[in-house]
Amino acid sequence: MRRGWTGSALGATARALPLVLGLLATGCVRSRTPLPPVLLVVIDTLRPDHLGTYGYERETAPFLAELARDGAVFTDAFSTSSWTAPATASLFTSLHPIEHGVTMGLFAQKESHHDAGAAIVRRLPPSFATLPERLRERGYRTFGLAANANIGPEIGFSRGFERFERLHGLSRFDSAPAPALLAKLQEWGIDGKSDGSPFLYLHFNDVHAPYDRQEPYLVEGKPRPGEGPGARAKRSLYDSEIGLVDATLRELFTRQPFWRDGLVIVVSDHGEELLDHGAYGHRATLYGELVRVLLLVHGPGLGVKAGRHRGNVSLLDVLPTLMDLVGGSQDPLWRGVSLAGLLREETKGDALGLEERSLVSHRVRASQGQERELWSVTRGSFRLIRKEDGAEELYDVASDRGERVNAVDLHPDVADRLRKELGAFLSSVRPLSGGELQEVPLDAEDLRALEELGYVEKTGKRGG
Predict the structure, then answer these.
(1) How many CA atoms does the CB half-sphere of 272 hold within 13 Å?
(2) Contact present, 311 and 339 (Cβ < 8 Å)
(3) Is residue 40 part of a domain?
(4) Which run of H or E residues covers position 433?
(5) 18, 86, 315, 410: which sits with the fewest CB atoms below 10 Å from its CB?
């Protein structure tokens, strides 16, 4: 049964009241001064080590490399989760998944495909303002285009946008290719002038499985030790999808060059496993290939200096940084920190404590009607992963970037410290109230699309 997606006008007003009062209390009011255009690009499932900017064997994204040369690149950026819904919710709120409550996203509840008639999702708490809501209150006109099944009104991602659309094919959960998003933008006609100060959120899904052959950008990868021709071919397809998104972004900037004069932030929500730990995709693990993300900030006109920054940063930091750069206020409930001072070279990285900062990632695995949690905590060069059965793994990525050798017995003092930090986090963090469960009806085409994306297996088990 579908429950109260919109509610009455009176109910909507009551739910919005805490948001309005909160914005007034933090001084978040419309600006009377010109605001720079803001472009936030999310490239779904992009692992940064497949970009030349991050040391890949070749340049898969030459346009992003151009932006990186004039912008700031964070070499050690992490997601709060290893899949889209929780990670993007953290990007929009600067809260951990356990706080904003979006820990699952779309998945089938029934064990059989044939009678799985609905997906259960938890919406973002309406009492807490999201990134587009805060920018709209700041004075921006807000636009959003997404191609991922999870990014839509069901979970609350469309809140705060003056205009939002999730592009799809036969089903509402089919992914639209990057050129389709560009074509839709042309229809909207955002020009940076008549529309006032625009904020645009673009969420590409091309790099997500299944990887299609993008011929103009297909280059066979160099053989790797132990990698068979099939695995190399699949990696090449993955890279060709990166090339398509990169070319689409170049075309966007050609058609709408005003974005170069504003603030551009490019991130990935999570990465992808390409047999790094014996599998494909982004199922229920928290290894580095899944939680390391791209974080690129370009804004010379806002004082953002070109350079590379070491130290652990998070998707949690994007909202505080963005608001700081456009003159907005900070929310004391945000878990991230503003990197604006670092970007403008007003603050040293060590002043923010990035090198010794602890970052927590979380993943829920649903199996046979039960939900089990996985956790990781990253501090300095060490990463502790606690699996769903309680087993722990420790990796020193300074010497073991691929996280192959479990060093929990080699560094018991480090493992104990990270274990205590994770325990302190779990004992202190509290979920926000108000993120109600929603039932989303699914038809046969919906299920087919979710299956293709890996969110529903043919056996009816829930995917990642």
Answers:
(1) 27
(2) no
(3) yes
(4) none
(5) 410
Distance of alpha carbon 369 from alpha carbon 374, whole angstroms: 17
Q: What is the DSSP string of 40-104?
A: EEEETT--GGGSGGGT-SS-S-HHHHHHHHHSEEESSEE-SSSSHHHHHHHHHHS--HHHH---S
The amino acid at residue 199 is: F
Instruction: Give 259's contacts (C-beta < 8 A, 6+ positions apart).
Output: 37, 39, 192, 252, 253
How far, in Å, CA of 296 to CA of 67, rounded?
8
> Is residue 187 over pLDDT 50?
yes
Cα–Cα dist 40/200, whole Å: 6
Among all chains, which residue has been given the structure tokens 């990007």? 91
Work out the burial of residue 140: count CB atoms within 10 Å of its CB; fewer than 13 is exposed, 13-18 middle, 19 or more buried. Answer: buried
Average pLDDT of the residues in 392-400: 97
* DSSP one-letter code for 148: S
**What whole-number distance in Å separates Cα of residue 79 and Cα of residue 318?**
11
pTM of the model: 0.87
Mean pLDDT along residues 281-291:
93
Domain that includes residue 236, residue range:
35-348
Residue 383 — φ and ψ, nearest 5°?
-130, 125
One-letter amino acid identity for 445? E
Q: Please check whether residue 387 lies inside any domain of the structure.
A: no
**Number of domains the chain is built from:** 1
Contact of 59 with 169, CB cutoff 8 Å? no
- Residue type (1 letter), 239: D
pLDDT score of 431 more than 50: yes
- The answer to the question of residue 304 being in a domain is yes
Rounded CA gap, 386 and 373, in Å?
Answer: 9
Structure tokens at 244: 């398509």
Secondary structure string (H, E, C) spanning 129-143: CCHHHHHHHHCCEEE
Does 399 fall in a domain? no
